[in-house]
Design goal:
Blueprint: E1 3-5, E2 14-22, H1 27-30, H2 32-38, E3 43-46, H3 70-78, E4 82-85, H4 98-113, E5 119-121, H5 131-139, E6 144-146, E7 165-166, H6 185-191, E8 194-199, H7 215-229, E9 233-235, H8 238-249, E10 251-258, E11 263-269, E12 280-286, E13 296-299, E14 302-305, E15 307-310, E16 313-319, E17 325-328
Parallel strand pairs: 2-3, 2-8, 2-9, 3-4, 5-6, 7-8
Antiparallel strand pairs: 1-12, 10-11, 11-17, 12-16, 13-14, 13-17, 15-16
């Protein structure tokens, strides 16, 4: 019999997250009600230097729209959303700017929402995914960094270059690709991928068609994700996926007993960051058919029901701690 850790939580086939760059207050009117309706959590990327202010950054299409303040961001946290740092100034981050853009911004944002900030999101373009930026992210305690590379993320991919799928009405020239509610979904299903959508602030009409979708297009995307995903998609904020990834990769399984009547294992967490506050993993266990009549697992000696997911195959989801023992008999 073997015990293995599933690639994604609850043994889901693929994962869906969505992010909103800039964290504009109008999300409360146009996007958040749709999230509440469909039960999909969101994630906002905050330009910390403009926290709670009316946007005034260069020639931005979003100038004149207000950024959320600390209380509005806290409200999102109570709804199960996540919050990330989108830099202090939304400028190109030079080596001498990393302290303000990454360390100071992280500390100010954490104080404003009374919660940790684990994710950095590149502002502008992938110039802000430069080596000196990502090195500073690691130094300052971030757990991952999000780019604007249009691609899937997979269970073995690095966390300091997370890809994001643009949820926009159309792409920049010369491509001009139109909005596609199915974008990357089939690929994610086939390749056990993680889609991270990104847009800004969907209104009735996109503020900028190359940077946003409409409110109606956002709704259609959610309908498509849930219809195509059915019970195979895990909808989660990026931090929850990061926690799962880090816990999975830092967990080792030691076989303690391997007999015809009992299989017992001990888990060891090696070097897992204290910032990983959710350490839940889903396991699959291959067992003899006779053990499936009343599927159970013993966690540190206490019996608990397991789920039969196929012939001779049990599944359990548990909160992992160093030295935890799992037994099947």
């Amino acid at each position: 019999m073997s015990l293995t850790i599933c690639p994604w939580k609850y043994n889901k086939r693929w994962v869906y997250s969505i992010t909103y760059d800039e964290a504009l207050a109008d999300l409360h009117r146009f996007a958040i009600p749709i999230h509440e309706e469909y039960g999909i959590p969101g994630h906002v990327e905050v330009v910390v230097g403009q926290l709670g202010e009316v946007r005034n950054l260069g020639s931005s299409s979003y100038n004149g729209y207000r950024h959320m303040n600390g209380d509005e961001l806290k409200d999102l946290l109570t709804r199960g959303w996540g919050v990330g740092n989108h830099s202090w100034s939304h400028q190109v981050i030079q080596p001498d700017m990393v302290d303000r853009e990454l360390r100071q911004a992280k500390e100010v944002l954490e104080a404003a929402i009374d919660a940790p900030i684990d994710l950095y999101c590149s502002p502008g373009n992938n110039t802000n995914m430069a080596d000196h930026v990502l090195s500073a992210c690691r130094e300052y305690g971030y757990l991952g960094a999000m780019s604007i590379t249009d691609a899937l993320n997979r269970p073995t991919d690095p966390l300091f270059w997370l890809n994001r799928t643009p949820l926009h009405e159309r792409y920049y020239e010369p491509f001009g690709s139109e909005y596609d509610p199915f974008r990357n979904i089939r690929y994610a299903k086939e390749d056990h991928g993680w889609i991270i959508d990104y847009c800004h602030c969907p209104l009735e009409t996109p503020i900028h068609p190359n940077k946003d979708c409409s409110q109606a297009q956002l709704r259609r995307r959610f309908e498509t994700v849930l219809c195509e995903g059915d019970d195979e998609v895990w909808c989660a904020v990026p931090e929850e996926v990061l926690f799962y990834h880090l816990t999975r990769t830092q967990t080792q399984i030691e076989t303690l007993t391997d007999t015809e009547t009992e299989k017992r294992y001990r888990l060891a967490l090696n070097g897992l960051s204290n910032s990983v506050t959710c350490r839940t993993l889903t396991f699959e266990a291959d067992v003899p058919a006779s053990w499936c009549r009343s599927p159970h697992v013993w966690i540190n000696g206490e019996s608990r029901p397991a789920t039969l997911i196929g012939p001779q195959k049990l599944q359990i989801t548990v909160d992992v701690e160093n030295g935890l023992e799992l037994a099947f008999r």
